[in-house]
Amino acid sequence: MGKLPSPLAYAHFSRRVGGEGACVFMDPAVTVKENYEFRRIYRKGKSAVSPQLVIYCQRNRRGHSRLGVSVSTKLGCAVVRNRVRRRIREIYRLNKAKMLPGYDLIVVARVRAVETDYQKLDRTYLRLLEQLDLLREDPS
User: Fold this and answer.
1) CA 86 to chain centre
2) Could you report the per-residue pLDDT of 57-93, keeping only the tens digit for each?
3) CB 56 within 8 A of CB 45
4) In what order do the strands lie in the sheet with 66-71?
5) How far is CA 139 from CA 72, 98, 131, in A?
6) What is the chain's percent helix, strand, coil content, to nearest 5?
7) Cβ of 92: how many Cβ atoms within 10 Å?
8) CA distance linking residue 59 with residue 63, whole number of Å
9) Parallel, antiparallel, or unpaired: how do β-strands 46-49 and 53-59 relate?
10) Do residues 103 and 60 make contact, with C-beta atoms less than 8 angstroms apart?
11) What is the pTM of this model?
12) How far, in Å, are 59, 92, 123, 139 from residue 95 at the CA level?
């Protein structure tokens, strides 16, 4: 038997878009990661609240929007928290074209987000964006 390839040889597959069984990850350039960025957006940004989600937003100078997701351990075990996180990221990805570019968003999941179905979360997200005036006039 020959030598096995290094795990790095397969690293490009995790970023592959499309195709059957492909894993798609968000580009690190479109996520808010640093603690100081979260604190700045919480402190200086605008917010909108619903029973399922809280959205904080602040204009950035990057020309593209970024997403940060905050899910507390109060929501449940890691499996539950990750499911909520994946739903929020997918809702953001699918509605990004409807949003104005150039904003940092932080979406905070509340306990009710766990039992809320995907469609209701999507509607809630869009309603909160509308409250924050982040939706384009012409979503095309």
Assistant:
1) 8
2) 999 988 899 999 999 999 999 999 999 999 999 999 9
3) yes
4) 46-49, 53-59, 103-109, 66-71
5) 32, 5, 16
6) 45, 20, 35
7) 20
8) 9
9) antiparallel
10) yes
11) 0.79
12) 18, 5, 11, 10
